[in-house]
Amino acid sequence: MRHYIALALLVTIFTAPWLATTFPEQADYVFAWMKYVGDQVAAVVAHNPRTIDELQKKYASSTPRKPHKIRVLIVPGHEPDYGGAEFGVLKERDMTIELGEQLALFLSANEKYEVIMSRTKQEWSPVFAEYFDRELDDIIVWQKAHKEESLRRVVTNQTSSSPKVYHNSAPDSVAYRLYGLTKWSNENAVDIAIHIHFNDYPGHGRIPGKYAGFAIYTPEAQYANSTTTRALSETMFKRLSKYNPVSNLPVESDGIIEERELIAIGANNTADAASALIEYGYMYEPQFLNIDTRGLAIKDLAFQTYLGLEDFFNPRGVRSLAATYDTLVLPYIWRRILPETSRELRDIYALQTALQVEGVYPPQGKDQYDCPRTGKIGPCTKSSVEVFQKKYGIEENGVGEKTIGELNRLYSGRSL
Ligand SMILES: [Zn+2]
């Protein structure tokens, strides 16, 4: 297809001067048409997605003296003051910032990465604010050219299935900014783009909904950035799924979902960078609702995403102490016993996490959706604690001195 466009451009270039001199009154149209064709070709042909091999070599060969860092664009979902889900006082667009900033900290601490954030809680980063202002017309032309090229591929049947998942379609201005982020990424050699979201779905009002868990959206196989993104999505998925349930929304139950229509990850074959969109969980899940666990839960998701990125580049890499458990919740030191009525949410959250490592949480016959890590002691935790006590020969009712002692022996980090 690209060759046909290039041919069309050549024909245009050779015939335009003749057309312009033969029909002088139409010269403006001819030159406008030339520019249009030129823009289309530039948009579609100048496409340089990274292969898995290229990215891994870049990472491996980057040194402090000769840095060629992996450029990661972090896009906290939605706009500084607009859009996204809300549940009670929680706003998705603020939660995505919190996670994005944590992810940026993990990546920036590693000299192999260079991080670009699209926005803060209050505003677009200056480079993007300016880019959206200055480039709006170009973004629109560029986006249209890709769309037309995609439509041609659909007509000639080079494309696969119809989209599987329904997403709210973005209003034009929001869509253009999303396309703008992709165009900017192509022009500025971004290697990886991570779009951060939290989920919700309509109709459950102020009562927490029935779905839980995370999902990663990756570009459909027909797109040029699909293979690399898929590989990255798989390493991130592996880390995230160790402690967090995969979304049980039926269309998300594969965990990694190929998508054709999401602008963020390269709809119409626009993106060079490996581009994944992660829905990190449903906003009303208990670990996000409770103020005592929210910060840690979000930071942990950022940490696991970071480890997933590292795994992509460095499958046999050295692991830090914290990475021993793949979570920031452990190691943990418990300093008090935990009666059923305890409101020590952090202690109980860590207890539930340790029980999960032990393989006894959720208890037999239950799953992660029945028994999320709530930070509160309910039937799930009680049964799991009993199994844990049996396993270690502890005779005790509830989480008393002996159980706390055993937890500290195993999970306070002293034994590492
Ligand atoms: Zn969202």
From TrEMBL:
Q: Which domain of life is it from?
A: Bacteria
Cite the source lineage.
Bacteria, Candidatus Tayloriibacteriota
Name a Pfam family for this protein.
Amidase_3
Tell me which UniProt keywords the record has, alphabetically: Hydrolase, Signal
UniProt GO cellular component terms = outer membrane-bounded periplasmic space
> Record keywords: ATP-binding included?
no
SUPFAM superfamilies in the record, alphabetically?
Answer: PGBD-like, Zn-dependent exopeptidases
**Domain MurNAc-LAA stretches:** 72-286
Its GO biological process annotations read: peptidoglycan catabolic process
| Keyword match Cell division | no
What is the recorded name of this protein? MurNAc-LAA domain-containing protein
Q: Which residues does UniProt call coiled coil?
A: none
Q: Which organism is it from?
A: Candidatus Taylorbacteria bacterium RIFCSPHIGHO2_12_FULL_45_16
Query: What molecular functions are annotated in GO for this chain?
Result: N-acetylmuramoyl-L-alanine amidase activity
